[in-house]
Every structure is written in structure tokens, then in C-alpha cells.
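Researcher: Structure for this, please.
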Amino acid sequence: SANEINAKIQALDKEIAAYNTQIANTQGEAKTLKAALSSLELRRASLLKETERTNLRIREAGQNISKTESKITQTEQTISKSQQALAELLRNVASKQDSYSPIVSILSSNRNISDALDMIKRENDISKSIGVHVGDLRIAREDLTSTKAVYESTKATLEDLSVTKKNKKQLVEQTSKEKA
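Model: Predicted structure, C-alpha cell format:
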């Protein structure tokens, strides 16, 4: 989980700080071969811990990307459902429309004025429902745009972490060669 990863990252940060302190102390010692070797070993250990921390951050970013992809998919499905519901509602309205106004058609069929008012109320309810669907659709699209922006940002972070990891790995290899 994200909390476990963050806890591991913090623990690694402490270990890295300890290694850096040891490196600083070792550098203050005499410039003997033993001190140089010790310094290289500490530097290598520090770089390995930094690489481990970067791996955890990469894993965390990967999890965030998966969650964001899932949210994007859900939002796209919500938009699709809202569009379908709105289309169905509009088809129903179009199929029930008469060429005459509701009042004229009801009164011409020998009904009373309350039937005409009921029909007008139903049409107003349908209009309100259409408005709600359009509003829901607008909100879902805004949410999708926002989620995609977060996704792209997290993806960029993952790419940066991968480059950092590669650089740390090269430093570990270089330190190992210097030690040999």
C-alpha cells in the first residue's frame, strides 16, 4: 500500500543519511588505501540504498498510474451511459411530439384543461431531466480531463524516476570498478 511504501522510503532516507554521515567521517581520515576503500564501500552502499528508494518510488508511481487508469475508464463509462440515457430521452421526446401544441391537441380530443396542464408538467419534467443529464455529462467530462492531467503528471514522474534509477545504477557500477 502507499503507506507502507512511504514508510519504507522514509526508512531508506534515514539509512542514506547515515551512510552520507559515515562517508563524510571517512573522508576526514587519513588518505590511506584502507580509508579510500572504506569510502568507496560506503558510497556504493549509499547508492544501492538510493536505488532501492527509487525502486519503491517507481512502484508507488506505478500503483498511482493503475488507479488513475481505472478512474479514467470508470469516468469514460459514466460519460457513455449518460450520453446513451440522454439520447434515449431525446428519442422519446421526439417520438411523442405532436405537430400541435399540447393544449390544442387535448382540447380538440374533448378532454379538459387539467389534462393539458398535466401534459405540460410532464414535458417540463422531461426538460428538467434532460438538463440534469447534460449537467452530469459536463461534470463527468471535466472530471475526466482532470484525471487525465493527473495521469500524465504521474507518468512523467515515473519516467523521471526511471532515469534517476539508471543514473544511480551507473554510479554503483562505476564505484564498484573504482573499488576493484
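Researcher: Any notable elements?
Model: Residues 64 and 70 are 10 Å apart (CA to CA). The chain has a mean pLDDT of 78.
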